[in-house]
């Protein structure tokens, strides 16, 4: 499904990925749902890059699990209001690559569907989450390097503080989108979530 804002829905059937959308549940750093409706979207360029990353991962027996992708501007504001940490979150005034449909948070799984060891969990706001962190196991360092290699080869840029975050080069080419502008209906009818 393509939305009016040229966002493509990322589904397991169409993209051969697993979805574990953390902001639909309380399994995220806020401890409560941010989105009312679970859906995963990327802009057209990012969706093409994801397809390439999936192919590259499959060629070495791995699969991709997605934690988040398009994040409406309302959600960017809510996350910042909860934890205003510029090392890990975009300030709402500057606009997140996520709210442009140009970023994705993900990890790798093996052929049995188990996540590869990455040294920290998703959204762990600690220096151990940085690319190049040396206070994690050699296995986690290797797995992060594999993910970095796959994503870079597929045309993605990385954010140095988060091993799970990848984005398009020059994401500001794309506008930020609210839930209403995107037509994503992720935040609910009022544009507010039940995160309070």
Write a concise keyword list for the protein shown above.
196 residues; alpha+beta; Muramoyl-pentapeptide Carboxypeptidase, domain 2; 5-stranded mixed beta sheet; two-stranded antiparallel sheet; 7 strands; globular; disordered C terminus
Question: How would you briefly describe this protein structure?
Answer:
This protein has helices spanning 12-15, 44-59, 73-82, 138-153, 179-182, and strands at 7-9, 18-19, 41-43, 63-68, 103-109, 157-158, 165-167. The chain is of the alpha+beta class. The protein has a single domain (7-182), classed as Muramoyl-pentapeptide Carboxypeptidase, domain 2.
CATH topology (level 3) name: Muramoyl-pentapeptide Carboxypeptidase, domain 2
Radius of gyration: 16 Å
Shape: globular
| Mean of pLDDT | 92
Count of separate structural domains:
1
Helix content: 25-40%
Which runs of at least 5 residues are low in confidence (pLDDT < 50)?
A: 190-196
Please describe the biggest sheet, giving its number of strands, its sense, and whether it closes into a barrel: 5 strands, mixed
Name the CATH architecture.
2-Layer Sandwich
Q: Tell me the series of helices and strands, N- to C-terminal.
A: EHEEHEHEHEEH
Distance between the terminal alpha carbons, to the nearest Å? Answer: 30 Å
């Amino acid at each position: 499904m393509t939305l009016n804002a040229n966002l493509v829905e990322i589904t397991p059937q169409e993209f051969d990925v697993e979805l574990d959308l953390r902001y639909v549940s309380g399994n995220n750093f806020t401890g409560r749902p941010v989105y009312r409706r679970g859906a995963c979207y990327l802009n057209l360029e990012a969706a093409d890059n994801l397809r390439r990353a999936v192919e590259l991962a499959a060629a070495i027996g791995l699969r991709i699990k997605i934690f988040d992708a398009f994040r409406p501007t309302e959600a960017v504001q809510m996350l910042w209001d909860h934890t205003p940490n510029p090392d890990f979150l975009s300030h709402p005034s500057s606009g997140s690559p996520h709210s442009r449909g140009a970023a994705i948070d993900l990890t790798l799984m093996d052929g049995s569907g188990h996540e590869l060891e990455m040294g920290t969990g998703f959204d762990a706001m600690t220096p151990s989450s940085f690319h190049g962190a040396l206070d994690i196991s050699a296995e986690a360092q290797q797995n992060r390097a594999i993910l970095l290699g796959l994503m870079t080869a597929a045309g993605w840029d990385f954010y140095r503080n988060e091993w799970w975050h990848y984005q398009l080069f020059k994401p500001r080419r794309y506008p930020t989108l609210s839930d209403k502008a995107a037509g994503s209906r992720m935040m609910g009818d009022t544009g507010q979530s039940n995160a309070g």
